[in-house]
Amino acid sequence: MKRTILFFQAALACLLVGCKQAPESPRLQDEVRYVDPFIGTGFHGHTFPGATRPYAMVQLSPDTHILGWDASSGYHYDDDHIYGFSHTHLSGTGIGDLGDVALLPFSGGDSIKPVATFKKDTEKATPGYYAVRLDNFGINVELTSTDRVGFHKYTYDNPKERRVLLDLGHILQPNWGHKLVGNEYLFVNDSTVEGTVRTQGWAHFHSVSYRITFSEPIETLYQYIDGNLRKDSLFLRLNTPDDLKFHYKFCGEQQTTVCKSGDLSCRYGRCREEYAGRTAGMGFRCYTG
Questions:
Q1: Beta-carbon contacts of residue 269 (< 8 Å; ≥ 6 apart)
Q2: Rounded-to-integer distance, Cα 47 and Cα 10, Å
Q3: CA neighbours within 13 Å on the CB side: how many for 40?
Q4: How far apart are CA 193 and CA 212, in angstroms?
Q5: Residue 104 exposure: Cα atoms within 13 Å on the Cβ side
């Protein structure tokens, strides 16, 4: 079966200028192998197994649980569905929030909100690394991260059906009053989008800005506004309280697609320069520690 790889690189950059990190010592690498990120993800531990680092701005992890108390971290060990891979998460709390800027690779189908299924024996998690097989879509997913950058690697069984969902209406615990209150979106060019998502939940006034850049042009774009497909023409700029979802489809002949997403909370000049510097290397490697 012909296989192709979709690399997705996501970065949530903080407002502070980060310092270069010192190389990991052999002792640290030895200690990391004893860590099990799945500890606490069952019962009511409310932790998540995704890729992150100590004190990092990025917690890149699958969201398997949306409603109720066990959605506090977005993940529960007993689940077998994935709604998206979002970039911010709480751990060990009694109430949920965050789950910002969710993406999900998928193949085929015409669902506005595709949902992935998986088996527990395909999941793997070590510090700074998470992997899973999306059975219904035929996609292998790998995630890793640095302090401010998250990387996605998607390997598709079907190279002609490489699609990615950007879900800007993704909310944890909407049945507890958490809600979307604002969406700004800008289609910068055929490989770059940016915007700001505003939500109200445990944090009454929460916003995350993002910039997503693909290494190849998007072949086809489907734009859904509050569940309705826009058929006549696409808005290049949106400022709305409505749920926004975008389906990006990539050309079947291109084997590798790289994408990076950064937090642009200050929105202008210096932030974009810092974002570009942090994500200059788009290769996939595992970051631990």
A1: none
A2: 21
A3: 17
A4: 5
A5: 30
Retrieve residue 55's tokens: 């004190």
pLDDT tens-digit series, residues 257-288: 666 666 544 443 344 545 555 555 555 555 54
> Could you say which DSSP state residue 263 is in?
-
Give the dihedral sign, CA 165/237/174/202: positive
Q: What does the DSSP assignment read for 227-262?
A: TEE--S---SEEEESS-EEEEEE--TT--EE-EEEE
Both tokens assigned to 282: 């788009």
Residues in the chain: 289
With a pLDDT cut of 90, the percent of the chain lying above it is 52
Q: Quote the distance between the C-alpha of residue 81 and its chain's center.
A: 15
Q: Is the dihedral of CA 137, 143, 37, 17 positive or negative?
A: negative
- Tell whether pTM > 0.70: yes
Rounded CA Rg of the chain:
18
pLDDT digits 0-9 by tens, 150-159: 888 888 898 8
Check if the beta carbon of residue 221 is closer than 8 Å to that of residue 234.
yes
